[in-house]
Amino acid sequence: MCTLEKRGNFFILTLTGDDDHRLGPSLINSILKALSQVKAQATPGSVLITTSHGKFFSNGFDLPWALAAGSISGARDRLNHIIQIFKPLVAQLLSLPMPTIAAIAGHAAAAGFALALSHDYLIMRSDRGVLYMRELDLGLTLPDYFTALFMSKMGSSLAMRDLILRGMKVRGEAAVRIGVVESTHHGEDGVANAAVQLGEQLAARKWDGEVYAEIRKSLYPEVSEVLGLRGKAISISKL
């Protein structure tokens, strides 16, 4: 599950429960409900910080739940269901009317990595945690919106190749070098403090959230199109 706390301009969304934070129907629906609350309560200067407890930021889709269906066809149906309901979660993050920060204090694997990458800024631990995609090892293809997300958010085709076609595990400092992560910090507290510090800088700008969301969508047109996020005209209110 997840919890949502409002601290001044900050919305703190925390993945709770076991260490894996696997993205199954229960957790996905819980996050979607929290993001709906965030959107409804957004004001100029709002910022979302997403974090987690335990070893993992998220260990990807809930494959144990899918396999518990008891048959290959049942497992496939469950996995396809997860893929479909995770898509609007990515869309919510990419259209949220405020800056978003993923404070990654543990591993972010597969869909867990995609969850983190759906935020504007990623901050990692320097002493623990990796980003990695394990679909090739598991014999799973990538959903179209995953491919569009990685192509939109990663500037290096070589880094994307190594992450997706080699299953390379990337630690914090390397993730900074390839332009995926904003910065790294020691320990869970270091990541949390850095996320708050960055959030304070962003909140101080008091941007119009609707304008922020529209500019973000225009910055990533490919994934926005795949997710069905249509742009809309915004009046210029400060001129």
From TrEMBL:
GO terms for cellular component: peroxisome. Keywords: Lipid metabolism. One of its GO terms (molecular function) is delta(3)-delta(2)-enoyl-CoA isomerase activity. It is an enzyme of class 5 (isomerase). It holds the Pfam family ECH_1. Pathway: Lipid metabolism; fatty acid beta-oxidation. One of its GO terms (biological process) is fatty acid beta-oxidation. Its EC number is 5.3.3.8. It comes from the Eukaryota. It catalyses: a (3Z)-enoyl-CoA = a 4-saturated (2E)-enoyl-CoA; a (3E)-enoyl-CoA = a 4-saturated (2E)-enoyl-CoA. Gene3D superfamilies: 2-enoyl-CoA Hydratase, Chain A, domain 1. Belongs to the enoyl-CoA hydratase/isomerase family. This is Delta(3)-Delta(2)-enoyl-CoA isomerase. It comes from Cucurbita maxima (Pumpkin). The lineage of its organism: Eukaryota, Viridiplantae, Streptophyta, Embryophyta, Tracheophyta.
